[in-house]
Amino acid sequence: MFKKYSLRYYNFRLAAAILATMLFGLLLVNSAKPSYTMKEAIGITGCFAVMIIISFIDYNWILKYFWLIYIVNIALLGAVLVFGHNGKGATRWIKIADGITLQPSEFTKLFLILFMAKVISMFKDRFNTWKFLGILAASLIVPVGMVFAQPDLSTTLLICLIICSVLYCAGIDYKKVLTVLLIMVPIVLALFVYIQTPNQKLLKPYQVNRILAFKNPDAQENEDDRYQQENSVRAIGSGQLTGKGLNNDDPNSVKNAGLIPEAQTDFIFSVIGEELGFVGSIITVLLLSWIVGECLYAAVRARNFEGRLVCCGAASWIAFQSFINIGVTTLILPNTGLPLPFISYGLSSLMSLAICMGIILNISLQRNAVDEDAVLDFNK
């Protein structure tokens, strides 16, 4: 479980980038929703501590229990469907105590990255066979389908992007990719036509409305579904170069007027744009890019194949989720419910990312063999 490590191999850059992004997020949550500040501060402290502890746990030991990780994931997702707490038209949370909920789909991203990394590395010689890919796909369809059933379309699509990224980094045969695309593209197009038919059963009405609002932005019946995004764009544009300042009392502020619901979570980038301007927006993108870059650097230096896949999966998770969140707030993408990594308010998202980053830090820590120059020995 614990090994002998040299602190000179510890990736302090990644740890610093994560801490800086978390603290940046705390300032923004305090401005967007001051009543959540203390809870977010406690969450950041706990999550960062968990990340540091996990960074000294051998990731190979964690991956050894990949089937247990898979079963726990299924159990948590099943608990949501049976005992889940309903909110905003979906059942995605398990109520732990008053004001404290757990969102298992946030951990599904991490669990599937770990599961795929171990399974693919174990059967690397058979990875590009249809039999193995079929078995792997069948094992992934179950948790992905359970997330979709909550319903949580945005997280489902994000998980699919992460899965594709891990498969790409594992070296999947391009001929097989082309074959799957030739099959999937017509199916996706047919489904898109189907969800626009009356009484369709695949998506919830609010999900269809969001997609149609993006497809036909000028249609009068779609105004309500674009309301939040259009106000977000107004807020970002009003910030200009340097913004109006955090915790400002500007009566013309879009945020202060309450025109951006859930500003502390999914639409926190609109707060960044309005209060910190273009400069703050660039800083946000640079911080997240820094973390993604460190994950990719760890992948290049990883000691084994499964470590490389975990790092690539983590990098794609943060990159895609950040792109989608910012794309939604700037009206580039349809409205979804994905938080901005490390910045948005939400303990489940923060904890799952912290655990993942702890594993990445351990992968970085083991990039070279450590013997006589070790300064930390957890076995003594």
UniProtKB/TrEMBL annotation:
Organism expressing this protein natively: [Bacteroides] pectinophilus ATCC 43243
UniProt keyword Membrane, yes or no: yes
Protein name: Rod shape-determining protein RodA
Keywords for the protein's UniProt record, in alphabetical order: Cell shape, Membrane, Transmembrane, Transmembrane helix
Biological process according to GO: cell division; regulation of cell shape
The organism's place on the tree of life at top rank: Bacteria
Pfam family, one: FTSW_RODA_SPOVE
Main location group: membrane
Topology of this chain in the membrane: Multi-pass membrane protein
